[in-house]
Amino acid sequence: MHFSIPADHPCLPGHFPGHPLVPGVVVLEQVLLAAAAEHGQALSHLRLPQVKFLAPLYPGQQATVQLQGQGPRLKFQVSGPSGLLVRGELVIEPAQG
Hints:
The chain has 97 residues and is of the alpha+beta class. It has one helix spanning 24-39, and strands at residues 2-4, 46-53, 62-68, 73-80, 83-92. It has a single domain, classed as Roll (Thiol Ester Dehydrase, Chain A).
């Protein structure tokens, strides 16, 4: 899945003034959207036991989410113009109750 966060996204003011970069939580949101699209449903019970941020993503830059594996455990990586940005693991847990 490809994505880009526009320069007018509401998460950017204050992160960081004069040198904005996309917050990690917004990048992880894109990972979750990609995983949900792959599974055909919203994922409401999950964990991110391992996440490593390697390089920043700047507003307007194109990035790509790649998922590997089959549920419930997926490895992911996010790549951008400068190479690998984020890598980690996502675990989908069964709904409780």
